[in-house]
Specification:
Elements (H helix, E strand, L loop, with lengths): L6 H4 L2 E5 L4 E6 L1 H12 L8 H14 L5 H8 L1 H14 L6 H10 L1 H7 L8 H25 L2 H7 L2 H10 L4 H17 L16 H14 L11 H19 L20 E2 L9 H27 L5 H10 L4 H8 L3 H27 L5 H18 L8
Amino acid sequence: MQPRTQIVQVFCTYAMLDDSQWIGWRVDAELRRNMEAHLQRPPAGVQTVEQWCLFWFERWRVGEDRLARAHLIAFLYEPAYWSARFVRAGFHRQLTLTDLCQTAVANVDLVLQGFNPVRGSDLKRFATRVFRNILYKALREFHEAEVCTTWSLLRKYSLRRLEEALQRQGYDERQTKSFLLACRCYKDTYVPVPLAGTRHLQPPTEQDWQRMAGLYAVRREPQLHQPTAAAGQFREWLELCAKALRQMLTPENFSIGVGGTDEPGDGVELLRDPELNPLDAAGEREEETDRQAFRLQLRSVLTGALRALAAPLPEVLELYYTQQFNQQQIAEHLGIKQYTVSRRLNKAKKHLATALGQWAQQKLHDPLELDVVEGMNRLLEEWLQMHFQPSDEGE
């Protein structure tokens, strides 16, 4: 990625991407005019990029300028891009760079709402942390949308998330309320076997559908003109609900901008040096260096914690991840109860997670938020799977 060297560029351009690389910087005409006007009469003490960043952040915070947020989005495209490249290179290549970058940028309000300049963390560094957590969560949900059956997906996600998904699909209030009630009846009535959570739940039986449709008929509110539903139609409604959830959880390409302000020959302009590789070599080397350093530190922390595990915990991990035994197979192999295997696995993972959490907190210098903890748990599981591969590769 070619760095933006001028203050005007930093606060008025958006990254243009294809599926795998940066193409150039797109200039927004209205933002450029606004930035140039402010530079002609700059506020006292505002000169550097960092000072302008705090200036626009304060104007966004107090609601004094309708363009302040757009200037901050332009500024934050760089950490969004590098976060997207980091996550895609290290953990998930199925989604495009554009998917991931735009998913990060679409959540820029979470960055702005959580940022506190008094704490001493600059906005770009803070945004990188938040964007990576957002992308990890988005990838986890994308994976769930891929692998869960319709019936698993409906049990997994809350009615609030379902309502959001239905609204995105354009269902009116009456349809949305009917679908939500149907899903509530499904959650209250269908008791799958086995009871444990699974991504591969089988569809309810015909008797289940009859029972759910009956419960819906009792609970529906005729004054809201909620329709009745036979068992077959009831199932169709739930399938539509699952479809809406999948579409919401699957990132789609979209563009972020002020919108409607481009001028012919001026508004859409690519800032790029044709002599440079679109992926700036210096930025590429810096990213790779950071990623390699991260992986080396991660491997050092976790391999050290792994060596510190007392017997027989390492043996259980070896059987579970290298031999790919399930818990029952491990129990039979070792001549112990299955619940003992489960306890040993949990104890080993807890020991490793504690070591990882202590290391992460030292790096971040902040309390660990829920999304960070969830991301570390996912990272630990991926590391264990790679570490115990027969080739000992993947780190």
